[in-house]
């Protein structure tokens, strides 16, 4: 996590707008892809032990979501949905997220998503901010950008 919250190591939206162009829409599309993948995985897991885990399906979905998001963000600094749309998460220092940052980002995302007001605030922040950051991004010190090799 960032100590200074300075954006110096990241592309400036004013001078390098290509790094931020379309990122909010791409994040939405990536979220749809990731939610579908998580849902399929959770359905398969819940169905394996004679469908007994269907009684606790929300918990199964939550655990799958945590493992999926933390694991893929730690490994690639992006979920499979983000990778599909060529976006990735970077710290304020410009580096990929490590395991702790991936965990904090995922927990922040899940908490913001669980409640209506933080979810709306986060969406508004993404749509109106020059870097398209949500609450959970600001909390951890993360920015979503178009993958540098694809700009």
UniProtKB/TrEMBL annotation:
UniProt protein name: Putative RDD family membrane protein YckC
Keywords: Membrane, Transmembrane, Transmembrane helix
Membrane topology classification: Multi-pass membrane protein
InterPro entries linked to this entry: RDD
Start and end residues of each RDD domain: 24-140
Superkingdom of the organism of origin: Bacteria
Membrane-crossing residue ranges in chain numbering: 28-46, 51-71, 107-128
Gene Ontology CC terms: membrane
Compartment(s): Membrane
Family matches, as Pfam families: RDD
């Amino acid at each position: 996590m960032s100590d200074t919250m300075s954006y110096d190591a990241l592309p400036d939206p004013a001078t390098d707008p290509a790094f931020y162009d379309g990122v909010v829409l791409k994040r939405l599309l990536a979220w749809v892809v990731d939610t579908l993948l998580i849902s399929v995985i959770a359905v398969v897991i819940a169905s394996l032990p004679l469908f007994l885990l269907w009684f606790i399906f929300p918990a199964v979905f939550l655990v799958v979501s945590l493992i999926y998001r933390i694991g893929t963000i730690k490994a690639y600094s992006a979920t499979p949905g983000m990778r599909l749309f060529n976006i990735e998460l970077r710290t304020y220092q410009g580096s990929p997220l490590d395991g702790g940052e991936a965990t904090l980002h995922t927990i922040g995302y899940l908490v913001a998503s669980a409640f209506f007001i933080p979810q709306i605030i986060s969406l508004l922040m993404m749509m109106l901010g020059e870097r398209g950051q949500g609450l959970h991004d600001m909390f951890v010190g993360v920015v979503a950008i178009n993958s540098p090799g694809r700009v």
